[in-house]
Amino acid sequence: MRLPWKRAGRPKLRTPDDRMTLTEHLAELRMRIIRSALAVSVGFIIVMAFYGPILEFLKEPYVRVCRENPDYECDGALAILGPLEGFSTRMRIALYGGIIFAIPVILWQVWKFIVPGLEARERRYAIPFIVSVVALFALGGVIAYWTLDKSLEFLIEFSGPDVDQVFQISKYISLVGLMIAAFGIGLEFPVLLVFLQLAGVLDHRMLFRQWRLAIVIIVATAAIITPSGDPISLAALSVPMIVFYFVAALIGRFVQRRREATDEAEAAGESATKAGAT
Asked: Percent of the chain at pLDDT above 70?
């Protein structure tokens, strides 16, 4: 009996002109979804097994804020306000962690699903695409975690004097998860720009011309997707996005020049071939 995550004899597609039937597309999609779900399940189990250390790691910014600011009158402990809250929080952390651990596998499955429709030149971008997406998401998560204590200090100060700081565990974990997701997704912005330039939708010259408008849009977007809404998180997210905007434009410029050089070389080769034939 064939296992559901095994490929059911999909025909080899050697060129973009080859076509799969609808049934073959659905079978391929099901296999990719099952493999992604298995990767998430493995990550879920790993996080469940190491839940204690992971929870302490997530609490560390709050503990550090309480330790460095005795006047806040908090000890870094998280409160549970219902009998099911501890269980639901554990499951939520395990699910979030499982998805994060499975991101490379999920991206690889997505790429393998769409790659039959791509040209050979476009398929070479598979490894750089996966590596850059994972690296940028991880960088966003690191920045979010690194600035979380400063964001908490701002939020506690903004709540006013004589306010006891007792954080509910589910809401604190949700804030941390949303911060990591927002920063991770926000830093995928340059990958999207590079992809649009490769697809011919955008041009690096337009990106350089519209840089002022782009900065305004980036800051506004960062303000919208930042869960805490504090200026520290806003600056910590918008500044890397602005830097990577220009990096993406430079990458597009480099790729465009390489394409033009390749096209010129191919045109010269064709001209030489025709001249030799005559």
From this structure: 83
